[in-house]
Amino acid sequence: MAQQDIYILAIESSCDDTGAAVCRNEEILCNLVAGQLIHEQYGGVVPELASRAHQQHIVPLVDAALKKAGINKSQLHAIAFTQGPGLIGSLLVGSSFAKSMAHALGIPLIGIDHMQAHVLAHFISSPKPEFPFLCLTVSGGHTQITRMDDYFTETTLGKTIDDAAGEAFDKTAKIVGLPYPGGPLIDQYAKKGNPRAFNFPVPNIPGYDFSFSGLKTSVLYFVRDALKTDPDFVEKNLADICASVQYAIIKHLMKKLEKAAMETRIKHVALAGGVSANSTLRHAVEEAGKKNGWQVFIPDFEYCTDNAAMIAIAAYHKYNMNRFTDLQATPYAGRPNL
User: Are 154 and 144 in contact (CB under 8 A)?
Assistant: First the structure.
């Protein structure tokens, strides 16, 4: 007897992008994202404006996702949503919509942890890592190394003790006058610059943990002091500044990842999160893989930044385990002990 296909609608609303995806088993039928340009004029995400934009986008986006997937809502077996971590107002929009739709259709609700979903994005397409594997997850709000022993069995080996790597990229962009979101622009300018032009400190803390607050402060003071003697310093040295800061951030990330891989003796190593779209970081992980004999896994670009496809694939595996979420469940801004 043929196994029944499982259709799941997934919603992602952790920050400023509204995402909707539909999967049939492990196959992603569609993956749509509606961005929010309004934050550019403020140089960062404004939580209240983000939640209002999610309210405007979510209904038409879900409707478009179902149509693109070629299915009717009556064919759905479950509704998945990002339960956290994230901006609480944004999460409430997605969770409230998901709860209402699941209740109306009489189908299960599946809450997904945003950080776990970034890791499980590696199971959307082949090649897929084998358990156990290490994953370096780098985003605007989080930086961590986890050991994955199963889909939802993880051990956090190290995490940032202050700021995230993605925030360091965005803050640097703001300091040198680049528009929001600045992280991708740092990557672009860095390709034209000399990573050794300026010596920014690489954090040195024990274990597998990360720290980026000191680096951000160093960049701020460096630019401030340079502008006192040369008002055009940033404009003349923009590519070199971007390359040098990026070099320090990536060196810190890679030092911890290589240490974790060596000491755990795990050879399957993955990269995830929004900053995994950074071309220099992707190259650094690939080169480290060649040097250390790792099998490296990096998601396609569309699955690196916040998206609903990663929520869908995580939900599919939870569905198979009958791990459903109560309608009374609340979203969480910070990450609980999972």
Answer: no
Show Cβ contacts of residue 159 under 8 Å, excluding neighbours closer than 6 positions: 142, 143, 144, 145, 209, 210
The Cα–Cα gap between 315 and 301 comes to 21
User: Does the CA dihedral 115-117-123-127 come out positive or negative?
Assistant: negative
Please name the fold of domain 127-299. Answer: Nucleotidyltransferase; domain 5 (3.30.420)
For strand 143-150 and strand 153-159, is the pairing parallel, antiparallel, or unpaired?
antiparallel
Domain with CATH 3.30.420.40 in the chain: 7-120+306-320, 127-299
Strands, E, within the chain: which ranges?
7-12, 18-24, 27-34, 78-84, 109-113, 133-138, 143-150, 153-159, 268-272, 295-297
CB atoms within 10 A of CB 108: 20
When pLDDT is cut at 50, 70 and 90, the band that residue 1 belongs to is very low
Give SS3 for 161.
coil
Return the CATH superfamily for domain 7-120+306-320.
ATPase, nucleotide binding domain (3.30.420.40)
Q: Are 134 and 145 in contact (CB under 8 A)?
A: yes
Q: What is the mean pLDDT of residues 36-64?
A: 85
Residue with tokens 């590519």: 239
Beta bridge partners, 159, equal 144
Distance separating alpha carbons of residues 265 and 204, to the nearest angstrom: 22
User: What is the pLDDT averaged over residues 19-26?
Assistant: 98
Q: Give the pLDDT confidence of 69-103 residue by residue, as tens digits.
A: 999 999 999 999 999 999 999 999 999 999 999 99
List, edge to edge, every strand of the sheet that includes 18-24: 27-34, 18-24, 7-12, 78-84, 109-113
pLDDT tens, residue by residue, 247-263: 999 999 999 999 999 99
Question: 135 - beta bridge partners?
Answer: 146, 270
Report the alpha-carbon distance of residue 47 to residue 61 in Å, rounded: 20
Q: How far is it, in rounded angstroms, from Cα 33 to Cα 307? A: 7
| pTM of the entire predicted model | 0.94
